[in-house]
Structure formats: C-alpha cells, structure tokens
Design goal:
CATH superfamily of the largest domain: Type I PLP-dependent aspartate aminotransferase-like (Major domain)
Helix content: 40-55%
CATH topology of the largest domain: Aspartate Aminotransferase, domain 2
CATH architecture of the largest domain: 3-Layer(aba) Sandwich
Largest sheet: 7 strands, mixed
Radius of gyration: 21 Å
Structural class: alpha/beta
Bound molecules: pyridoxal-5'-phosphate
Number of helices: 16
Number of strands: 17
Length: 399
C-alpha cells in the first residue's frame, strides 16, 4: 500500500496535500483509504460538476474505451467533432480548439489573439492587458499574466508585452488599453481571489475600449464555466460577447480537457501549423465532455443551480449571524467565497480545512483569507444542509 509519506518521497513538493488519501468517490461523497467518508464541497477545484463517477459518464467512458483512444490530430475523430458542434450550438463560439488543461487554453488564447493582431494590424500590436489578483494557471504565459512576485519569482525572464491593471478599477483603463493592445485577458469572476465579481461598469468600459482599439476580449472561464454560476458560461450574465473564451475544469468532470472557443473572424488568423496539441481533442475526454455539456446546458439544470445557491446562501448567512465569522458571503451559482473576519483569520485557512476534514467535509480556500465552496452542481438540498452543519461544527470547534 502507498501512504502519504510516499508523497514526500516521490512527488515534486509543489503541493501539500491532506494527510488522508481518497480512494473512491460517488456523487457528492468521497471515501479515503481507511473508509472514512467525506461530503465533498470542493469537486476537485470546481471540476466534478456532475458529481463523482456519474453513471452516464462512466458508461460513456467505458464504451469509448473499447472503441478508440487516440490517433493524433492528423486525423479527425467523431467525439471531438460532436463536442465542438454542441459547444458551438450552445455558445457564441463558431470555432473550437481542444486542449488538456486551463493553462493550455490560456496559452493558446494569447497566441491566437497576438496572431490575429499581427495578421490584421501590425506586429507592434502585441500587448496583453491583464489584471491584479487574476489566476490563469501555471505555464510561463499564465504566471506572467498574474504578474505577482509570489507566482513569478525565480522563474524569469517572463514573456514580455504584458500590462497589469487593478481589477475593477475603471480609472486608467483608457491609458492601458490602446492601439498597441492585442487583447485584454480577464476573469469575469475571479475564482482564486475568492469569488470576486467584476463590476458591470468595469466590464462595460473594457468592452468600449477594446472595440475602439480593435483589441480582442479574452474571457477566462476555466473555473466559472460549464454551469458553475448557474449559466452555461458567466459571460451570458454580463451581456458581453467574448472574442475568445478559455474553458476547462468542469468540461470533463475530471477527464482532462479544456478548450479555446472563438469566432470565425478571429479563427482566420490561425492557419494549418500555427498551433497544436498531441492529446487535445482526444476521443476519451471528448466523449465524456459531450455528455457533460448535454446535461449542464439544460435550462432546468441551470435553474436548479440558482435554486440551490439561494438555499446555500441563506444557511451560510444564518451561520454567520450566529458566529459573526465572515465579513462577506459571496456567490455566483454554486461557487461560494466566505471571507473571514479578523477574529477568525488568525486561525489560518489550513486549520479550518483540517477541522472540516475531521468533520468529514471537504472544502477549499482561495486567496489568503477566504474559504471557497464549490460542490457538485448535482448536490441535493439535504446534502447542502448536512454540509453547512459540518462546516458550523468545524468552525465552532476552533472558535
Ligand atoms: C480562471 C483559471 N484559469 C486558468 C486556470 C488553470 O487551469 P489548469 O489548472 O487546468 O491549467 C485556473 C485553475 O484554477 C483558473 O481558475
């Protein structure tokens, strides 16, 4: 048997996982090696939107595994074509490029935006505007977009041409988005920062300036996409049409898949040989993702997310009245940020997470002062109530 100490022995120490090792999962529950049961308010990190080992997805993956695993992009495959067609039917997109992860989608999105600018305007139009506290992944371009010392120190030199601006600050946008801007890369709701929504005035100003300067809008919905916010994608709520959208996480419910969604107009800049990915669009992940999209894009499914959000938030507000532990309870669908007040902040997020594990509850953190909840979108009302009780016990034990 392998144990947690094997992690320290064999795995690059960039993570510090919990002491227990999960072994199996079903729906909203996870069991560890010792058969301890956990209610899952994390879904990976907003990934398993249909719950663990969803029966349709298991069936689909089993069936596909007997037919075709891989052939390379020298050949097209049916699952990828079916999935691309479905996503184009359900969103603004007219062209899709499949990736294996969110960061790979961001990387390809920036390449596409720069290629569009250089093809249609000039090589000088190459600047990318990104925002403080954003998170776009861990590749070189993705950490450069974040720009913070915490993410970039020791990894330089960083890719150039990136301009940082404070998130939600309208002042100064006019100067930073100019004729040299190829694209603005933005999360409409910053996930890793603690579920922080962009203000509508901020988005409207970006929209206006991008249009004026022929700059593309690249929306990173790696975490917010595929039903998490109660919309198939959050851009629908913001009434903004992206030129390029990055998706991943929830797309495969745990199968590694991401995508760049874009328009016919933008896609013309990307010709044969301009980009690629060995596993991007592989039949296994695409067959599962097709079933995910079919389910999540149903209006009734998305409405159920909003309904459960209301219950969740009212229970969390009640909890907060009792303990006064959060300065803010923020949500976008079943994506919730609980900002800790100073009374409890010194407990450290790690302690709160450990205490939750002891109560049989899996939760997440975001930023350095926020608890993040992202349960399966299929979670039942009973499980929400049970989980909030477990959260209360984990907090009250520490307080
Ligand atoms: C908004 C956003 N973009 C990009 C990424 C990177 O995705 P991945 O870890 O799949 O590379 C993440 C991951 O958390 C994310 O939240």
């Amino acid at each position: 048997m392998v144990t947690r100490s094997d992690f320290n022995k064999y795995i690059l120490p960039v993570y510090n996982p919990a002491k227990f090792i999960p072994k199996k999962a079903k729906g909203s529950y996870v069991w560890d090696q010792n058969n301890n049961k956990y209610l899952d308010f994390a879904s990976g990190i907003a990934v398993s939107n249909l719950g663990h080992c969803h029966p349709t997805l298991v069936k689909t993956l089993n069936a596909q595994s007997k037919n075709l695993w891989h052939l390379s992009n020298v050949l097209a495959n049916e699952p990828a074509l079916k999935l691309a067609k479905l996503i184009c039917n359900k969103t603004f997109a007219e062209k899709i490029f499949f990736t294996n992860s969110g960061a790979e989608a961001v990387e390809g999105a920036v390449k596409t935006a720069r290629k569009y600018a250089s093809t249609n305007f000039s090589n000088k139009k190459n600047e990318i505007v990104a925002f403080n506290d954003a998170f776009h992944g861990r590749t070189m371009m993705a950490i450069a977009l974040n720009g913070s010392k915490r993410m970039t120190e020791g990894f330089g030199p960083m890719p150039g041409g990136i301009k940082q601006h404070p998130f939600n600050q309208v002042d100064g946008l006019k100067k930073i988005i100019n004729k040299n801007t190829a694209a603005v890369v933005i999360e409409l709701i910053q996930g890793e920062a603690g579920i922080v929504p962009a203000k509508k005035v901020f988005i409207n100003e970006i929209k206006k300036l991008c249009r004026k300067n022929n700059a593309l809008i690249v929306i990173d919905e790696v975490q917010s996409g595929v039903g998490r916010t109660g919309h198939l994608y959050a851009y629908e709520k913001y009434n903004i049409k992206p030129d390029i959208l990055c998706s991943a996480k929830g797309m495969g419910n745990g199968m590694p898949i991401g995508a760049i969604l874009t328009t016919n107009k933008v896609s013309k800049a990307m010709q044969v040989g301009a980009h690629g990915s060995t596993y991007g669009g592989n039949p296994l992940a695409c067959s599962v993702s097709y079933e995910v999209f079919k389910e999540v894009s149903k209006k009734s499914f998305l409405n159920s997310v909003i309904k459960k959000e209301k219950l969740f938030i009212s229970l969390l507000n009640d909890l907060n009245k009792k303990y006064n532990c959060f300065t803010a309870v923020r949500s976008a669908g079943l994506w919730i940020g609980l900002e800790l007040n100073s009374k409890i902040e010194n407990l450290t997020l790690q302690n709160i997470m450990s205490s939750a594990y002891d109560e049989g509850l899996m939760i997440l953190k975001a930023n350095n002062n926020t608890l993040r909840l992202a349960p399966a979108l299929t979670i039942s009302e009973k499980e929400i109530k049970l989980g909030v009780k477990k959260l209360e016990k984990s907090l009250s034990r520490l307080l």
